[in-house]
Amino acid sequence: MSAFHTYKNPSLAVDMVVFGYQDNKLSVLLLNRNEEPFKNEWTLPGGFVRMEDTFEETCTNILSKKLGLTKLYLEQLYSFDETDRDPRGRVISVAYYSLINPAKFKIVAGSMANDVKWFEVKKMPKLAFDHKKIFAAAIKRLQSKILYFPLGFELLDDLFTMSELHQLYECILDTEIDRRNFSRKILDADFIINTGIKREGVKNRQPDLFKFNKKLKQNNFHLNIQQQ
Amino acid sequence: MSAFHTYKNPSLAVDMVVFGYQDNKLSVLLLNRNEEPFKNEWTLPGGFVRMEDTFEETCTNILSKKLGLTKLYLEQLYSFDETDRDPRGRVISVAYYSLINPAKFKIVAGSMANDVKWFEVKKMPKLAFDHKKIFAAAIKRLQSKILYFPLGFELLDDLFTMSELHQLYECILDTEIDRRNFSRKILDADFIINTGIKREGVKNRQPDLFKFNKKLKQNNFHLNIQQQ
DNA sequence: TTAGTTTGTGTTATTTTGACACAAAGGTAA
DNA sequence: TTACCTTTGTGTCAAAATAACACAAACTAA
User: Fold this and answer.
1) Domain holding B165: CATH number?
2) Structural domain containing residue B129
3) Contacts of A92 in chain B (CB under 8 A)
4) Do A11 and B4 touch (CB under 8 A)?
């Protein structure tokens, strides 16, 4: 195409909605900006995409180098393209969301921010740019995807009890789920049945722990939980 | 962010999977390129995003100016970012898919292509770039979304019979669906019940035509059709 | 008219779901 | 240890959803 070099290109960035689960609450990691625009306001972690990096590489670099987070579940969410979404000029944002177990990491505010903090999804502050919209899309995706894909395990320890999983689902879906019916649905799910996931007792913990094999994630299941 | 102007930005393009339904077959619109790279090979329609245009504006411009298609259903699919996906250099592709009723338009090959043709999804030629991957993602999205959102109507005339709709679903999902159970599910769907969609006889056509009001699209429903 | 096809309605067995009873197991405090 | 409470596992059952199919009415084509 002859026009290949005649266009000026929009800038390209990634923004990430990093979910963590602690104390039976779902939280999101936010940075307090130390530069204009939106200085001292809260934003999603993000950064520009370099010519030689893929989106995932960009995400991984930002999270690992600046926040110390590695080996995360990452999934592309949507690309946000409104022409006025960044006051500095035209910036496309490719949004990703990530699920992490906060117990496994120490979050460190790098040079890019005054502060880094977990905010419960029900107590979010005002967000800079169009990040409120990105956050809303991420919550919606998480809520719908967890019904047919075992996302929840990313947020828990490798070993967890059925009731921990149950509470996680109630928290994410923001609804009550009958404990006994939930348990049966999980145990009937293909990814448990087909792969022989183990249940075992572990010292000093309750006797019904699941041992979760990360390889099981690929198997689909469907919970069909009714929203209240 | 001080780095705002120090990055060289990847080029940004949109590519579109335009679905049409004719003769009880689902087809996709492809262009035959008249320039290198991939000269004389088939590709999805697409083009570069200008600084002042959103993705949807870019899509609309390409489809209307070059192919004569207007007022289309458009939905963002995914953004493809592999660094080597375009031999000319780094090009991000934001993929959209579109549903049109081919009977309403005359497709014209503009200056950008040798030829424009509908290809049945089961008889696709080799595609240039990574467009095979984009096409596969679009089919998958269409198949899953049609189960809970009334997408199918975009592909039919404003008036259509129940059996036309039934055949469309069988075709898209590539499975057999019991005619009588399907009919009941459609009639029980919220978007029919809540809005009082009309059924009426029309001269010279079968007496069970639906009159489809475009405003109804917003209402969700769930068909829960079993894949064979 | 007749034969064949398409379409609308009804029936039924099976499966899935939601709600809940109850017992077993584990923890805690005396 | 016992008594009591909490947590967890299994079972039951009614209601709802689903899949399969019978049959009659309407239409088409000859």
Assistant:
1) 1.10.10.10
2) 9-145
3) 12
4) yes
